[in-house]
Design goal:
Length: 553
């Protein structure tokens, strides 16, 4: 399930995370026969399987794997490279990867800690803990609860407002949440599941107001340090400030046989979540295989190392909002994730900071929280009855069409490794894998899409002989305000500098470049591995990032 998934023109995924799909996954390593596997056999099979997948899919530079099983950390291991161009940059169990929206689970645990301390309940209105919280929908403003936000059942629609943090429209997370008062909403409260990163930006501010600390400081003091998670930070920038930058993996993007990167996660625009602030409650946390194993044990032990109450983790991992979609596909295509789900006989739901809860992993009780950023991908899965947790993270963001077989590669690997530890017979494991690919190919036969020629082939945006004429520049210069939610999406400016037409939006100021279409320009900024365009409807109207802007000066 997507998280921190880019929206509009910026966030359309149209390229490939290459993967070998022809060979059965069991090829190249030995399976046990008859009876259950020993723990040593399970470990050996899982490691061999992951190594096989990396060999078959060289577009994944590096990967981390942790397996917590029946109270022991059976695997905490790195594979491959932190930097694709540096053979000496081996990934280890201490290498920190961006985990994307798995950060949301930490925010949920932070709220649970405050509940355990008697400071709030799941069902408290947000307004009771964040007095300055404002929405245009005043009923939703008054009655939205912490649980509504945690289970993705708020008035905020899927990915509403994400462009604001990507382009740095506001200087802080608090300012971002304050400006939700200016964001038009079309959903009614508790109308069903919709994946909103803004829900967790609000929750981050709830933590800060309740504790008089930043949410990173609170998680460090109340969760990470007590658990011994010293290889986990709120963001790459925080890790670098703690002199742990050498342990950060760099990010990459892949399309077909091409990998671009490495991208520094602290400084490179292609890897940044926001240019305005480094800490993002919805998804900026970095962590290692070592620490993710520790956190898995915490989730699988009902939080006993931190919480007085034995029910809080159970409440986090209980389904609260029934899923009628899985963000990138409908629920009837859940087998593309490596799930076993029958919409006529099963129910799957979102927990608190958890994507999927249900008996969909070879019939076992199961929950998961995925995480994606532009240059990293994280997948996990937990089977509480078997005290089993598997977490994988890869340092590449694949430009694969959502719903395609390459898009779901890490999901399938997650499910396969879980199956090994659940003693699922080899034929059934292979059947799951192959069915996931078949389903994805039905959904999205084009597993390649279109690789952006500028990013993946090095084709310059500028074409000899194509320029924006001085006359056109003079006509377009001015200020343009967003038609929808103008107080939130703000305005952009076009100015002339050194005979060039320059676009200013948020934290970015870059020139526009002419194309063969006289009404379409490319903005000279590198974000998301996709060329960003500005289309001119007339001299007073621009279409940018899927938003219409009209001249106001």
């Amino acid at each position: 399930m997507r998280a921190l998934y880019f929206v509009g023109a910026v966030f359309s995924v149209v390229t490939l995370w290459a993967v070998t799909l022809t060979s059965p996954p069991s090829d190249g390593f030995v399976s046990t026969t008859g009876g259950g596997r020993t723990v040593a056999e399970k470990k050996a099979l899982a490691v061999a399987f992951v190594e096989t997948q990396l060999r078959q899919n060289p577009m994944i530079p590096g990967l981390t794997l942790s397996v917590a099983y029946k109270g022991d950390t059976v695997i905490a291991q790195g594979f491959g490279l932190k930097q694709s161009d540096n053979p000496n940059s081996q990934v280890t169990a201490s290498t920190m990867f961006q985990i994307g929206s798995y950060s949301k689970t930490f925010i949920a645990v932070g709220i649970a800690k405050l509940i355990d301390d008697g400071k709030m309940t799941w069902h408290d209105p947000v307004k009771s803990h964040l007095p300055w919280f404002n929405l245009q929908d005043k009923y939703a403003e008054e009655y939205t609860t912490l649980g509504d936000l945690l289970s993705m059942n708020s008035v905020l629609g899927a990915f509403d407002g994400d462009l604001a943090f990507v382009f740095g429209l506001f200087p802080s997370e608090r300012a971002l949440v304050e400006h939700l008062a200016e964001l038009n909403t079309t959903r009614s409260i508790r109308s069903g599941y919709a994946y909103s990163n803004m829900n967790f930006e609000i929750l981050g501010q709830v933590i800060e107001h309740a504790t008089n600390q930043t949410w990173p400081a609170f998680l460090r003091q109340s969760i990470w340090n007590p658990l011994g998670m010293h290889e986990t930070f709120a963001s790459p920038a925080e890790a670098a400030a703690a002199h742990q930058g050498a342990h950060l993996a760099d990010g990459h993007m892949s399309c077909g046989a091409k990998v671009i990167g490495p991208f520094n996660t602290v400084t490179d625009s292609l890897a940044l979540l926001s240019t305005a602030f480094s800490d993002l409650a919805a998804g900026s946390v970095v962590s290692s295989a070592n620490d993710l194993a520790i956190f898995s044990h915490f989730l699988l032990s009902s939080g006993r190392d931190l919480f007085k109450s034995s029910t809080l983790v159970q409440e986090i991992t209980t389904g609260h909002t029934v899923l009628d979609n899985m963000v990138v596909v409908d629920t009837d295509a859940a087998d593309a994730f490596g799930f076993a789900y029958n919409p006529d006989g099963n129910v799957i739901a979102a927990g608190y900071g958890i994507d999927v809860v249900g008996n969909v992993m070879f019939g076992y009780d199961f929950f998961t929280k995925n995480g994606d950023t532009a240059t990293f991908k994280q997948r996990n899965g937990f089977v509480p009855s078997e005290r089993l947790g598997v977490v994988l993270a890869a340092n590449t963001g694949a430009k694969a069409p959502p719903g395609s077989a390459p898009y779901f590669l890490l999901d399938r690997i997650r499910s396969y490794v879980l199956g090994i530890f659940l003693d699922v017979p080899q034929p059934q494991l292979d059947a799951m894998w192959n069915q996931a690919i078949r389903r994805a190919n039905q959904l999205q036969p084009d597993g390649v899409g279109e690789c952006d020629a500028h990013f993946f082939q090095g084709v310059p945006w500028e074409v000899d002989g194509l320029v924006i004429s001085p006359t056109t520049q003079a006509k377009l210069v001015g200020s343009y305000v967003a038609v929808a939610s103008p107080g939130f999406y703000d305005y952009l400016k076009l100015t002339r500098q050194s005979d060039q037409l320059v676009l200013h939006y948020g934290m970015y100021t870059h020139k526009l470049i002419a194309t063969a279409d006289p009404d379409t320009f490319i903005w000279d900024v590198e974000i998301a591995g996709r060329s960003l365009t500005v289309q001119v409807s007339d001299v007073d109207t621009l279409l940018f990032l899927g938003i219409s802007f009209v001249r106001n000066a």
